[in-house]
Design goal:
This protein has 665 residues and is α/β, with parallel strands linked by helices. The protein has 23 helices and 24 strands. The chain is globular.
């Protein structure tokens, strides 16, 4: 993507939404999701203010409503399902709401002006938008007309234009179209091309076109209607899922003859298969979970004698869902509640899911529970005086496990195959999403015991320091390992220090030798505190005023680091252990990469230059000698490798093999 496309997008959105400097826009989407630019850049270009909704309430309907009222929010964008929930109940003082990411159906515009937006990441977010008329009921709510400086075309499989009413592939030509996929020329060539219908733009440059892979048509009013995906790639709860990848992995399981992945009723990922014998579905699910991310592991498994075929011999996917209802066919145990809490939560789940044929041990996800249902259950439970988190409900999936397990500090990532050695992965303050590639590839060779992110369990930590937390971790290790050894302890950033501390104490208390992989951390320094203090001092010295979004992002980063600083201050200095260490150091350390992301968000070119100058100094780029500190303080063997990337960038997939290769068996 390039700046000209973003600038055009911002001008178009500001015009369509009638944004002014008096608007106060909520930003709900995370910064890792491209849709966040809807509520970030266009408002700032007209002088409006942007209010970032805290992570802690992003799935809390009542919390978001309170945030809207307290901050005088006038507009914002949300996923279609979440927006529909926000529109229920007490009216919101909003001027408008933009809903995107899912097909809109059944909504009628009332006092809040609704917009239905559509667009892929490859084209700088939205490429079309539709303004719903108040009180009108639509059979198929359109996705609107193209953005300014843009054109939409409906083509057949040969690239020929189709007339109004005929369905075909939506192609988009615009300054918003990206240049292509980074270092993927073959994939770029498949969907990016020079537009054959408009040769040049107003400046004489070739017009780029993107093939969306979506099935659409023009209606009689000249609006686009979205019909679905052309291929088997589907979107479920915000994630794009390649059904063929699930099917390919399924076919590697012994005994499977045929496999078809499908999304039932737009809410449940299910897998139909044929096999020569009965297969334990729990084991099958665990097998898939070893190589697929959580959102691509099917919730329902349907064993069929044969798969239906079309007249030309292909598998008839449409008939699969029509003839088989995975929700109704689920084997329900209908276990009764054993206490008042379970009784209350079960009543709420019955009401939210609209059925009563299940009990406290039945899988709610298999019963059709999605993230929106989970939010509703959590809201109702809180109204009854029971505080439960949406993340826990989605994770545990049954009412009994939710009540018994609560928040856990650790969990196994994969099947406990006794033939595999054990690796302990300590997240520390690193996110599970950022660490997903490393965790996924570890599971191919090892049983992985994960210690959760500290921010996820922070409320249960109370006044604990690192030493006290290590006591808890050691107790968990002794319980989970049951006398087995640990091949290696691994951690990134502060998780690296925690992995080192835990490995050292565990080796002293057991007869097992182990090793540690540390990704960019030094336990013997307050480098993070020094970095953030130096950054704040430099900003104050330059009298640099940060835009609200940048100031809040900076404050969030400092808050996370403060967790580490506080835990270190109240604990003993990290001892030196006689353990083999594999240290990997990023070439840009100490948080510098985090702050570089703020430069483009500065409000003026002058301020961007000032912040760049602050960061472009030796003492800011590296406040400590990571390798030197380890050589000085660690008494065991030490191997050091440098990764040519940032502190967070070193978790990219291309570097994972280096970390795994360092683990000697």
């Amino acid at each position: 993507l390039h700046h000209a496309g973003l600038r055009s997008y911002c001008a178009s959105m500001a015009d369509v939404l009638s944004l002014t400097r008096s608007d106060r826009i909520s930003l709900h989407r995370p910064f890792t999701f491209d849709a966040h630019i809807q509520d970030l850049f266009p408002p700032l270009t007209v002088g409006a203010s942007v209010h970032i909704i805290p992570e802690t309430i992003r799935r809390d309907i009542e919390g978001i409503k309170i945030f809207v009222h307290e901050n005088g929010i006038t507009g914002g964008s949300y996923t279609t399902s979440l927006g529909a929930l926000l529109l229920e109940g007490t009216p919101l003082p909003l001027r408008y709401m933009t809903l995107t990411g899912e097909k809109m159906a059944g909504l009628v515009c009332g006092d809040v002006q609704l917009f239905n937006g559509y667009g892929p990441t490859e084209c700088t977010d939205l490429i079309s938008i539709f303004r719903l008329e108040k009180g009108i009921v639509y059979d198929n709510i359109p996705i609107g007309r193209p953005m300014a400086n843009s054109w939409c075309f409906i083509t057949d499989q040969y690239g020929h234009l189709l007339p109004c009413g005929m369905a075909g592939e939506l192609c988009f030509a615009s300054v918003q179209v990206g240049r292509g996929y980074w270092q993927l020329p073959e994939q770029t060539a498949k969907v990016f091309a020079d537009c054959p219908f408009i040769e040049k733009d107003a400046w004489g440059r070739k017009m780029r076109m993107y093939r969306t892979g979506d099935l659409c048509r023009w209606n009689e009013q000249g609006e686009l209607e979205y019909l679905g995906r052309i291929d088997n790639q589907v979107k479920l709860r915000g994630f794009r899922i390649e059904l063929g990848e699930i099917e390919s992995r399924m076919m590697k399981y012994d005994g499977i003859h045929q496999a078809v992945a499908s999304v039932y009723d737009g809410q449940l990922l299910c897998l139909y298969y044929t096999a020569d014998s009965d297969i334990d579905e729990g084991t099958l699910k665990e097998f898939l979970a070893q190589s697929l991310p959580d959102y691509m592991v099917p919730a329902a498994y349907i064993h069929l004698d044969e798969l239906p075929l079309t007249p030309n011999g292909k598998i008839d996917r449409r008939r699969l869902n029509e003839q088989n209802n995975p929700i109704q066919s689920a084997d329900m145990q209908q276990v009764s509640p054993c206490n008042k809490i379970e009784e209350t939560l079960l009543e709420i789940a019955h009401d939210v899911l609209g059925r009563e044929d299940f009990g406290v041990t039945d899988n709610l996800k298999l019963l059709g529970m999605n993230s929106i249902h989970a939010m509703r259950i959590a809201i109702r439970a809180q109204q009854k005086g029971y505080a439960i988190r949406v993340a826990e409900l989605i994770k545990y999936q049954t009412i009994r496990q939710l009540h018994v397990d609560g928040i856990s500090m650790s969990r196994w990532l994969n099947v406990q195959d006794k033939g595999k050695p054990i690796v302990v992965y300590v997240l520390g303050i690193s996110g599970e999403t950022e660490s997903c590639h490393l965790m996924q590839e570890l599971q191919d060779k090892y049983r992985v015991l994960l210690f959760e992110n500290l921010t996820e369990i922070y409320t249960s930590l109370s006044d604990k320091n690192v030493d006290m937390l290590m006591d808890d971790y050691l107790s968990i290790l002794h319980k989970e390992l049951n006398g087995e050894g640990v091949h290696a302890f691994i951690g990134h950033s502060f998780g690296g220090e925690m992995a080192y501390r835990l490995a050292g104490r565990w080796s002293l208390l057991s007869d097992w030798r182990t090793q540690v992989v540390v990704l960019d951390n030094v336990p013997w320094t307050d480098s993070m505190e020094n970095f953030w203090k130096l950054l704040k001092d430099r900003i104050d010295d330059k009298h640099l005023t940060l835009p609200k979004t940048v100031a809040e992002l900076l404050e969030m980063s400092i808050l996370i680091k403060d967790i580490v600083i506080q835990m270190r201050r109240t604990s003993n200095v990290c001892p030196s252990y006689d353990l083999p260490i594999h240290l990997f150091v990023s070439t840009k350390h100490s948080g510098i990469d985090d702050v570089f992301n703020y430069i483009n968000e500065m409000d003026t070119e002058e301020n961007r230059t000032v912040l760049s100058e602050i960061l472009d100094t030796d003492d800011m780029a590296r406040t400590i000698d990571v390798e030197g500190m380890w050589h000085k303080n660690h008494k065991g063997s030490l191997t050091v490798s440098y990764i040519p990337d940032t502190h967070m960038g070193m978790l990219k997939k291309e570097y994972i093999s280096l970390y795994l290769d360092s683990l000697t068996l």
